[in-house]
Amino acid sequence: RKEVEQDPGPFNVPEGATVAFNCTYSNSASQSFFWYRQDCRKEPKLLMSVYSSGNEDGRFTAQLNRASQYISLLIRDSKLSDSATYLCVVNIPSGTYKYIFGTGTRLKVLA
Amino acid sequence: DAGVTQSPTHLIKTRGQQVTLRCSPKSGHDTVSWYQQALGQGPQFIFQYYEEEERQRGNFPDRFSGHQFPNYSSELNVNALLLGDSALYLCASSLTASGFRGYEQYFGPGTRLTVT
Hints:
The complex is a heterodimer of chains A (111) and B (116).
Chain A: E1 4-6, E2 11-14, E3 19-25, E4 32-38, E5 45-50, E6 54-57, E7 60-65, E8 70-75, E9 84-92, E10 98-101, E11 105-110
Parallel strand pairs in A: 2-11
Antiparallel strand pairs in A: 1-3, 3-8, 4-5, 4-9, 6-7, 7-8, 9-10, 9-11
Chain B: E1 5-7, E2 10-13, E3 19-24, E4 31-37, E5 44-50, E6 53-57, E7 64-68, E8 74-78, E9 87-94, E10 106-107, E11 111-115
């Protein structure tokens, strides 16, 4: 089983729609979680850090379910500019720590 | 406030050659991590440097080595290049500190390496 798993998509949604992505992780000792956004041929950009059970930032809501070992990202009122790949990242305590990335979920918002 | 910078942006090398990639961390950051990202995949952790020492390593062979300098900048060296080393190489910086924020990493634009 992969350490971090995401549905690769693509998710094609109309403008204004609400879309949710899930990400599961296998290491129950994982301490921190992040969502990054990556545009084509660009570097990943930090979108949200996921604190305790979750947090919200404008149209974006991230939730953490430690019991079921998954995190989710909800995007409300999708914009064309939200089209990108969304990477789930889990911080695994291993000596110090290391980031494990999922393969990403592609989102395309359609006009 | 300068972000993470990397050089060069693109590089073409031949199988068997050696390559050095460079990274300067975001101002105020002291930790540098390197990642390899193949097309259609998520970034794969190579190693992390803090206080000029490698303190964490992913599943990469010894052909991949690195260095961190006193000013926190870092180099990634790859020897005996293989075709499969063609990828986007990303550098990320963070500030090692107690608390959650110490784990947030910020990425540079990457170096796209093509091995022919």
